[in-house]
Amino acid sequence: MTSALPTSKAVLLTATKLNKTVHVGDQSLSIIKDVDIHVNAGEFVVIMGKSGSGKSTLLGLLAALDYPDSGDVELAGQTLSRLNEDALAVIRQRDMGFVFQSFHLLPTLTVAENIAFPLDIARRPDAARVDELIEAVDLGHRRHSLPNQLSGGEQQRTAVARALVSRPKIVFADEPTGNLDEQNANQVMQLLLDLRQKTGSALVVVTHDSALADMADRVITMHDGRIVS
Ligand SMILES: Nc1ncnc2c1ncn2[C@@H]1O[C@H](COP(=O)(O)OP(=O)(O)OP(=O)(O)O)[C@@H](O)[C@H]1O
Ligand SMILES: [Mg+2]
């Protein structure tokens, strides 16, 4: 397996016996079943599996965007389920980056403002870092553009820069190339990998792209709410 970064063996994230049930009408559906998973510092992990197998749900639990019914997620020694919403918000801002299939940029902010956003809400503005990221994703000529003035590839490059700007410990990406053509998909993925190498962030990517899986340190396959390999 190719690893651009010499991954340290230190465990960064550990999830233990995660379970999640959703209620649809009078039915209870178990959608995550006894999932154990760990991610090492700097590691690139890909999660694959059929549609509906629970990949996005699991990513949401790992990123503390959603609560498990039972089980724990520990990030850098902190048990996320024991933290209140304010403490979790701090961890999301400081230690986590996110990239979504549908970009999720703030529509009223420019490219530069979107990239700066994580630093600004953490009250750690850093114009030099924002400029560095804008150049890294090759959007210098679009820095004052609004998201609706950008192509899909440009929007996702903005989202990648935003995800990495605060040098998070871990970046979660849910089908980051799912809405892009092959050329833009390759470019966005390469940028994500390059920036992750520079900042030393771990990267957890849900994808259907086997080319991407080939680049990962480890591939996890889900089936029906469980990890099967
Ligand atoms: N809030 C919810 N209410 C009801 N069912 C849900 C809810 N969230 C997820 N599910 C169901 O849980 C299962 C797992 O969903 P999830 O979105 O995690 O799958 P996925 O592996 O990400 O699929 P895809 O590849 O299509 O994105 C699916 O059967 C889905 O319909
Ligand atoms: Mg999904």
UniProtKB/TrEMBL annotation:
Keywords: ATP-binding, Nucleotide-binding, Transport. CDD domains: ABC_MJ0796_LolCDE_FtsE. Residues 13-228 form the ABC transporter domain. The keyword Transport applies. It comes from the Bacteria. GO terms for cellular component: plasma membrane; transmembrane transporter complex. GO terms for molecular function: ATP binding; ATP hydrolysis activity; transmembrane transporter activity. InterPro entries: AAA+_ATPase, ABC_transporter-like_ATP-bd, ABC_transpr_LolD-like, MacB-like_ATP-bd, P-loop_NTPase. SMART domains: AAA. SUPFAM superfamilies: P-loop containing nucleoside triphosphate hydrolases (SSF52540). Coiled coil: none annotated. Belongs to the ABC transporter superfamily. Macrolide exporter (TC 3.A.1.122) family. PANTHER family: ABC TRANSPORTER ABCH.1 (PTHR24220:SF86), IMPORT ATP-BINDING PROTEIN (PTHR24220). This is ABC efflux transporter, ATPase subunit.
